[in-house]
Amino acid sequence: xxYTQFLVLVxxxxxxxxxxxxxxxxxxxxxxxxxRTAGVPASNVxxxxxxxxxxxxxxxxxxxxxxxPASTMKLVTAYAALEMLGPAxxxxxxxxVRGSLQDEVLAGDLVFKGYGDPKLTYENLWxxxxxxxxxxxxxxxxDVLLDRSYFDTPEHDSGxxxxxxxxxxxxxxxxxxxxxxxxxxxxxxxxxxxxxxxxGEPRLDPFDIxxxxxxxxxxxxxxxxxxxxDFRDAPxxxxxxxxxxxxxxxxxxxxxxxxSPDDYFAGVFRRLWSELGGALSGGVKNGxxxxxxxxxxxxxxxxxxxxxxxxxxxSNNVMAxxxxxxxxxxxxxxxxxxxxxxxxxxxxxxxxxxxxxxxxIENGSGLSRVERISAGNLAALLVAGFRSPLMPELLASLxxxxxxxxxxxxxxxxxxxxxxxxxxxxxxxxxxIAGYVLDRRGSRHAVVMxxxxxxxxxxxxxTDALLRWVYDSAAR
Length: 476
Known about the structure:
Elements: H1 3-13, H2 29-38, E1 45-51, E2 59-61, E3 66-67, H3 74-85, E4 92-102, E5 105-114, H4 122-134, E6 139-140, E7 144-147, E8 183-190, E9 195-201, E10 208-211, E11 214-216, E12 227-232, E13 238-246, E14 252-256, H5 261-275, E15 279-280, E16 284-286, E17 294-300, H6 304-313, H7 317-332, H8 338-351, E18 373-374, H9 375-387, H10 391-396, E19 420-427, E20 430-438, E21 444-452, H11 460-471
Parallel strand pairs: 5-6, 5-7, 6-15, 7-16, 10-13, 11-13
Antiparallel strand pairs: 1-2, 1-21, 3-18, 4-5, 4-17, 8-9, 8-14, 12-13, 19-20, 20-21
Helix pairs in contact: 1-2, 2-11, 3-6, 3-7, 4-5, 7-8
């Protein structure tokens, strides 16, 4: 933010402009000024502020206009899941065997059946494989089959949304999603060799990592721009890093979703199974769970309340997609698809008495050009959520301003710091906030603000101004 812009916002925030009358279609003065600075017309903004104990908003602007909520759509998915599935809901991942198992040798196939666990991590897969070893399985003479049939979704194009197919936020849903399909490349300077060592986690087999990076002096800056990565998945997976890396950066990480779901699971499985002393004669491929297979071991996810917390705090898109599809599967039976999930969410809203004909949900994550909801209906959902027995779980899942999640660096050292739980939303042409603010008088407000405009990236000052204004009780 420029210094002059900062002074303008400080002076505005300290003003004592009168609050608009209840229900008045007007913008708070500090917000309007910040939007003018950002070059965003008021017609491209929606705002609702409502005390959680009130039956009507204290402030609203274009409250009924359908707008792209970006990642604040995760609030719909999260609250629906908490009520429809329950905060203790857990996903399972099963390992079945087909054929005879004798003297640690399986004369047949090992089959993994997934049920959409949003948090099937590297560590949990290790626990599952360890359980297989403890149950007497070592040598698999057949294949490893991956049953993903619990989800019925079209093939996912990771580059379709923004032409960034390797970014982990673009990973698609998968009933047997492992570790978010991401590889964390760790860059370790080695001054004694004037080189940079690079390794990947989790380790995959096969997968080669080659670093010919030059270690240089100077400031760290945008260090990734100085690296020329070459990622390949054929004929064998490989990552080659050329370019330079400033020693002043110390150790840094770079997360990449490089491989297909099949190759990723296969690479991790082979590595872990070998480390556990196991052997595999066949391959790793997709396949349905045979009727004559028998369950040998399984592993469960953390409870839904913890999953929702991770999803919202860090705005994890693939977790939201997994959760959204689970709603459809549980409501209408597997296999899950987006239509079943949409119908389940709309029916749940109707049962809550929230009429949202404008609601458009594509994947439940907000990473979408077509998802829409009005600020008024999202605020109504927040008010209902606060009055729900599940309020503690919902509230605790949201980033705490200036403390954690996507809000950890915003509004530090200001009065509202630590006093608001706010979900953020960010797209190229959209900025959004939604959540709860505890004002300086001890009243709590549901707050929603959408900005849909090409200049939306410049509108963070306006969303911050709204949070300050509500905290200072101007919304009364």
